[in-house]
Amino acid sequence: MRRFFRALTPSAWIGFVVLVSIVGLAVFGPLLAPHPLDEPIGVPLTRPTEGAPFGTDFLGRDVLSRTLWGGRSVLGLAGIATVLAYAGGMAVGLAAGYSRSLLDPLLMRVSDVMLSFPALLFLLVLVTGAGSSKTVLVIGVALVQMPLVARIVRAATLEQSVRGFVEAAVARGERATAVVRREIVPNILGSVTADIGLRFTYSIILVASVNFLGLGLQPPDADWALIISENRAGLTLNPYVILVPAALIAMFTISVNVVGDAVARNLGISTARRRLVR
Amino acid sequence: MTKPVLLVRALRVELDSGLPIVEDLDLDLRGGEVVGIVGESGSGKTTMALALLGFTRRGVAIRSGTVEVEGSALTEGGERSVRSLRGRLVSYVAQDPGAALNPSLRVGDLVGDMLRAHDAGGKAEGKVMAALRGVNLPAEREFLRRFPHQLSGGQQQRVAIATALVCGAKLVVLDEPTTGLDVVTQARILNEIQRLRSEQNVAIVYVSHDLAVVSSIADRVAVMYAGRIVEEGPTAELVARPRHPYTRGLLSSVPDPVRPRRIQSIPGVSVGVGDRPPGCAFAPRCLQRTEPRALMEAPPFEQIDTHHRVRCFEWRRTPSLEWEAPLITKSSAPGVDLLEVDSLTAGYGSRLAPLEAVRNVSFSVAPGECLAIVGESGSGKSTLARCIVGLHPQRAGRVLLEGAVLAPGAARRTREARRRIQIVFQNPNESLNPRHRVGNAIARPASILRKLSAQDADEEAARLLGMVRLSLGLRDRFPGELSGGERQRVAIARALSAKPDLIICDEITSALDVSVQAAVLELLSELRAELGLALVFITHDLGVVASIADRMLVLESGAIREQGGVAAVLSDPQDDYTRRLVAAAPRLVTSPTLPHLSEVE
Predict the structure, then answer these.
(1) What ipTM was reported for this prediction?
(2) Same domain, yes or no: B302 and B195
(3) Gap between the Cα atoms of B35 and B233, Å rounded
(4) What's the Rg (C-alpha) of chain B?
(5) Using CB atoms, which residue from B391, B433, B498 is nearest to A170?
(6) Does any domain span residue B149?
(7) I need a labelling partner for B580 at 20 to 30 A (CA). Which of A268, B5, B308, B382 fits?
C-alpha cells in the first residue's frame, strides 16, 4: 500500500482525493443533511437562497439535502454489482481458461450471447420481467459485466496455464483447485484488477441510466440519477438541481478512472493494453 | 604496418545518470582481421558494439573518446554525417535475424534498401545479386521476392550479412550472430564469415558470450568485464596462457566435447551496470587478490607482450589452465533399470493432421546414471521429457519406473511415482512462480509429495538452499529478486525437495552465462555423488554432455540416431548426423580453426 502511494502521480493524487471525498460525501452525507429528505421547504424550483444553497426541486424539497442522501444508492449499488460481476467473472473465466475441456467453449459461447445484447436493453427486459427492485438491478448490472470480466480472466488464465510453474505444479500432482488458487490467481490478479476502475464506472453509468429511466429506484427515494430525471423539466428555473448531482457523477467516474490508471501503471500494465482487453 | 581500419581511443559510454557502461576502451583493427569481444551478460559488450557505429540506445550516450573508421570519426559531426558513414564504412549485424529483418519487406528490398540509403541505387539489382552470391545464397529473381519468414534461420542471418556488406563496408560489427542457430548452421555461418574476411578484406568485430566460438574464428580476443577490456591478446596466446584471472575463469568454465575435463566455475556473481565496485571490478570475486589496492584503484592496462595487454596488478601470479583436470568419477549401480522408455511415440496436432514429435523412442536409465539426450531445436527432446513426467499425452509406447508401467498423465500416477521423477525446466523465470517466495516454492514438493508437516518442510527448504549453495537469506525473497543462476539453483532445490531418484533436466543451462553454467554443472555433479541421483540431461551442447553425462542418445526429428557411452560416441560417432554434430560443435582452440564445410555438410 505504501508503494502504491509513492507511485502516485500528481493527477492521480487529485483523482484519489476527489474519489475519497465523494465516497465520504455519499457515506456520511445523510448525517450532514440540513433538511429532511422528503419535506417541501419552499416554493418548487427556486434558485439558491439562505436556507437552501442549491435551491429547491420540483416539489420544493431541499436540493442539497437530497444530494447528500442520493450518493449511497448509486455508489453502493454499483459497488455491489461490480463485486458480484468480478466474483462470477473470475469463477467462469478461471474454469473456462483452465479446464481445457468442453466447458471452455460452452461457457464462452454463453458469454458471447450475453455480450451480444445491448446492456441497457438487457436490463430493461430484466426489470420489466422480474419487477423493479434493488436486488434485480444489482444482479442485472452484475450479469451485464460478468462476461466482460470472464473474458479477461480467461485470456489471462490461458496465458498463465502454459507456464513452467503451472506445469511443475501439475507434475507434482497438485489438485486443480490448488493449481488455480496458488499458481494462477496470484499471477492474473494484476491484469484483472487493472480493469476494476473501468468496470466500476460502467456499473455506475448503468445503475444511473436505469434509475434515470425510472425503472430502478422509485420516488421518493433520493438518488443522483433519479434527481436528475425527476427535475429535468426544471433545468431553466433552477439549473443546480440538475448540475450538482450530474457533476458529482461525472467527477466520481473520472476520478475512479484516473486512480484505476495509476493502479494499472503501478502494476506495469499499460493503458493501451487495458483498452485492448476492453 | 598498414593503417588500422578501426581506431578506438578512450571510449566512454554512459547512462544519462552518469553511470558508465563502457570505460577506457581502446581497440585497433586492421583490414581482414577478426577480433572477438567476449563477455557475459552485463559486461557492456552490446553497448560497445553499437558505439562502434557511433550509435547508442535511448538513455545512453557516448560521453568521451573517439571511434574512427578509415579515418572518419563516428563520434563527431552531426547525426546526419555519421548516418552517411553507417552502412557504407561500418555496418552491423544483430543477434536475432528473425527480429532484425523487417518481416514485411522482401529479400531484394532488404538488401537493396541499404544501397538506396547511400545513393548507390543504380544497377541495384546487380549489386544485390552479387552480395547474395557473396554469402552463398541463390542469386535468383525468385529468391529476391521471398519474405524473411520463408527463409531458414541460417539464410536469414546470411541475408543480414549480405546487407551489411552490400555497400562495401570496411568494418562489420557482428553481435552474437550465431546465438540461437543450431551448431551445424552456426559452423556454416562461421565459415562464411571467415571466407568473406579473406576475400573482401573486411575487418570484423565479433561479439559473443561463447569463448569456444570466438576462439575458432578470431585472430585476437578481447575479454570484457564490467565495461572494461580486462585482457586482450592473440587468440592462441590468450587461450593457452590467460593472464587475467577472469579470462582464466571463463576458459575453465567452457566444457569441451572432445577432451572432457572437469569444468570450474568462477565464485560470485557478475556485476551489473549499477553496482560495479570501485577499483578492479573483478577484485571481489578474485581468488588471487592479495593487494588491497585492487579494491581501491583500477589497475592500468599493462602491456605484457607486443600484442598482449592485461588489466591486473597480479597477472604474473595467474596459474596456467588445468587442461587435464579429471572428471568426477561416476558410478552406476548394476541391477534393474530405474527408468525405461519403451517405443514411445508422442506428438501434436489434431487427429486429422497428426505431427509426431517423438517417434518410437526406447532407452533406459540405470540408478545413479546420467543420460544425456542431445538434439537440435525441434528434435522432440522437450516433448520426450514432458512425456516422462506425465505432462504430455503419449500416442503409443510405455514409460516404466523400476519395471512398473506409469500412467501417461501425471494426475493419474501414484504420489510415489510423481515424487521419484522430478523435472527442472529450461527457463527458471518461467518455472518459478513470481508470486511465491523462494522458501515456499522449495518447501511445497516436500509437503505435498512427502507429506512433511509445514514446519518440517520449511526446515527441509532451508537445508536444500544450503545444498544448492545458496544463502539462507534468500528464503524470503521472490524469484524476481534473484539472478538467473540463483533462480536455476532454486529450481533444482525444488526438484530435490521431493527426494527424487531421477531428475529430468531440460536444457537447464542454456539460458545461463558460461561461468554460471559451469557452476550449475558442478553442483549437479556434486549432488549426483552425494545423493546417488540419476539424471536425464537434455541439451544441445555437446561440451556440456561430455562434462556431465555417462551415456548419451542423439535425437533427430523425434527418432534416435545413435546411443552409447559419451566417450565412444563423441570420439567415434557412427551415425552421419551425429558425425556432423560433433564436427560442428565449437571447441576452445588455440588457433582459429573451423570445421571444414565438407564435414558439416
Answers:
(1) 0.73
(2) yes
(3) 9
(4) 25
(5) B391
(6) yes
(7) B382
Task: Please report the sign of the dihedral spanned by the C-alpha atoms of residue B512, residue B514, residue B515, residue B518.
Answer: positive
User: Does residue A182 share a domain with residue A82?
Assistant: yes
Q: Residue B424: helix, strand or coil by DSSP?
A: strand
On whether both B265 and B343 belong to a single domain, the answer is: no
Give the Cα separation of B367 and B201 in Å (integer): 56
Q: What does DSSP assign to residue B369?
A: -
Q: What are phi and psi of B538, to 5 degrees?
A: -95, 130
Q: What is the structure's pLDDT at A243? A: 92
pLDDT band of residue A7 (cuts 50, 70, 90) is: low
> Testing the interface with B: which of A172, A185, A189 to mutate, by most B Cβ within 10 A?
A172
In the three-class reduction of DSSP (H, G, I as helix; E, B as strand; rest coil), residue B340 is classed as strand
The residue range of the domain holding B194 is: 29-45+82-317
Domain that includes residue A193, residue range: 74-197
Asked if residue A94 and residue A43 are part of one domain, the reply reads no
B582: amino acid identity, one letter: V
**Residues A129 and A82 grouped into a single domain:** yes
**Measured distance CA(B527)–CA(B468) in Å, rounded:** 8
CB atoms within 10 A of CB B599: 13
Asked which of B282, B317, B352 is the last residue of a domain, the reply is B317
Please answer yes or no on whether B389 and A186 come within 8 Å at the CB atom.
Answer: no
Q: Using alpha carbons, select from B440, B425, B413 the residue that is nearest to residue B497.
A: B440
Question: Using 50, 70 and 90 to split pLDDT, how confident is the model at A276?
Answer: very low
CB-based contact, B411 to chain A, within 8 Å: yes
Tell me: do A122 and A177 sit in the same domain.
Answer: yes
- Residue B95 within any structural domain of the chain: yes
DSSP classification of residue B294: G
Give burial (CB, 10 Å; 0-12/13-18/19+) of B71: exposed
Q: In what order do the strands lie in the sheet with B534-539?
A: B421-424, B502-506, B534-539, B370-374, B551-556, B559-565
Interface check A186 vs B, CB under 8 A? yes
Q: Are residues B144 and B237 in the same domain?
A: yes
> Of the residues A148, A181, A197, which one is the last residue of a structural domain?
A197
